[in-house]
Design brief:
Number of helices: 5
Number of domains: 1
Largest sheet: 2 strands, parallel
Strand order of the largest sheet: 1-2
CATH topology: TIM Barrel
Helix content: 25-40%
CATH architecture: Alpha-Beta Barrel
Structural class: alpha/beta
Shape: globular
Order of helices and strands: EHEHHEHEH
CATH superfamily: Divalent-metal-dependent TIM barrel enzymes
Mean pLDDT: 97
Distance between the termini: 28 Å
CATH class: Alpha Beta
Strand content: 5-15%
Length: 141
């Protein structure tokens, strides 16, 4: 059994660095990290350091956009259109390429506002149209 800890929208575990502290305490070949690029970005983490230090333990990646946490805002961790949030997509994908990431990506999005299957399909296609060219440009697809 493998356990992958997701980087969350909560201060408890909002960085790969915090995962690495847990990894140090639980020495197991079955423990991994599951970074959510949106969550990592929203907490103002240094994306390069985060992915460079934790690349050996990444099981998979969530792809979503977020609005950053600030002194006056709790941020927004869902329902943020791709490209309108705080994620620096090209930088993130370039770092993943540099660290030889070759695992799966999961596009994280919500469809509560879609009233039909066609609207849901269109939302998925819009996300793919935004992300796939960036992933390809970085050489990850």
């Amino acid at each position: 059994m493998v356990l992958a800890i997701e980087i969350m929208d909560d201060p408890f575990i909002n960085s790969i660095e915090k995962y690495l502290a847990i990894e140090k305490e639980i020495d197991s070949p079955f423990l991994f990290v599951y970074p959510d690029i949106g969550n990592v970005s929203a907490w103002h983490n240094d994306i390069y350091s985060e992915f460079y230090l934790g690349h050996h333990a990444i099981a998979a990646l969530h792809l979503k956009d977020t609005y950053a946490v600030t002194e006056s805002s709790k941020g927004q961790f869902r329902d943020v259109p791709f490209g309108q949030g705080c994620v620096k997509w090209e930088e993130a994908f370039d770092i993943l390429k540099e660290t030889n990431y070759n695992g799966p990506f999961l596009i994280e999005m919500w469809s509560e506002n879609c009233e039909t299957v066609e609207e849901t399909r269109a939302a998925i296609q819009e996300a793919q149209a935004f992300l796939y060219p960036l992933i390809k440009k970085a050489g990850l697809m």
